[in-house]
Amino acid sequence: MRTFQAFATVFLGVLIATASLQAHHSFSATYDGNKPITLRGKIVKLGWQNPHAHLYVDVTNADGKVVTWEVESAGPTTLMKQGLRKEDFVGQEVIIKGFLAKDGTPTVNASSFTLVDAKKEFVNDDKTQTP
Amino acid sequence: MRRWAVAAGMGFALTLAAPAETLAQTRPDFSGTWRISQSKSSRNVFGNTPDIQFPSQLDVKQSATDIAVTATSVRQQPVSATYKLDGSKVNVQSPAGITETGEAALNGSTLVITSRRSFSSPAGDVVVDFKEVWSVNGNELTVEKTRTQVGDTPSTQKAVYDKM
């Protein structure tokens, strides 16, 4: 029984470590540096977890079709240092500047985003700029 | 009379030679293999959240009329072009799915490359304009790059490359 518990603990540990490594991927592995993009839309959902917060943003295309984009941002700690709380996102209009995912899905890595009502640009490191 | 003619001839030859020599001295040479320097470049060109992506290496071959540039980055497809230095438009060899044209011209001691890149995305077609200003100082190449896109304010970042 003890052996089973030990195996289960190790297995769980490996699963958690793998998930964490997958979440913390490098920019160059996932995103295309040759494809910068700027999006404007409304935040409909927030994933407030480490190592990256994820914003889900409804963007209306030129043809009127709404596409929900997954936006990888800095982690909650970095965002909180810039004065943001998790309550500040959903329902807000946002302008995102970043790079497209290599796999062609509506996924983007945000180098910065601007909450339109707050008129403040949040850069994905510790520097904050105001337009 | 003969001495006067020789002196005049020499003077004329010097007059012709001087601008060519001056041109050769002021014409910058960007040839070589250049590797990006993390310590000398802007913070926002590195890491998981670059503001503007810069290639990690530039291979440059320059002649009197052309400059050939191959830009490579880790895990990214290379981008290359042979620009005419008269500023005429050329096609840039970009990864699949990207169309890009560009032009280059020497402006004093700097090289100015402007390009327009377009590609499709789930948000529709995207068009991005870039302007790069290159300056060389010994074994250091500085590239100042401005990215402009519809619906966005232009942003500029600087990267410094060391000659290999």
Written overview of the protein:
The complex is a heterodimer of chains A (131) and B (164). With 131 residues, chain A is α+β, with helices and mostly antiparallel strands. In chain A, 24% of the residues lie in helices and 42% in strands. Chain A has three helices and seven strands, in the order ααβββαββββ. Mean pLDDT of chain A is 81; it is low at 12-22 and 126-131. Chain B is α+β, with helices and mostly antiparallel strands and 164 residues long. In chain B, 15% of the residues lie in helices and 52% in strands. Chain B contains one helix and ten strands, in the order αββββββββββ. In chain B, β7 and β8 (124-137) form a beta hairpin. Chain B is globular and about 80 Å long. Chain B starts with a helix and ends with a strand. The model of chain B has no long low-confidence stretch (mean pLDDT 87). Chains A and B meet through α2, β1, β4 and β5 of A and β4, β7 and β8 of B.
Indicate the structural class of chain A. Answer: alpha+beta
Low-confidence stretches of chain A: 12-22, 126-131
Structural class by helix and strand composition of chain B: alpha+beta
Proportion of beta-strand residues of chain A: 35-45%
Approximately how much helix is present in the residues of chain A?
10-25%
Main sheet of chain B?
A: 10 strands, antiparallel
Secondary-structure element sequence of chain B? Answer: HEEEEEEEEEE
From the spread of the alpha carbons, the general shape of chain B counts as globular
How are the strands of the biggest sheet of chain B laid out side by side?
A: 4-3-2-1-10-9-8-7-6-5
Q: Compute the gyration radius of chain B: what is it?
A: 20 Å
Oligomer: heterodimer
Topology as H/E string of chain A? HHEEEHEEEE
Low-confidence stretches of chain B: none
Mean pLDDT of chain B: 87
Distance between the termini of chain A: 62 Å
Main beta-sheet strand count, sense and barrel state of chain A: 5 strands, mixed, barrel
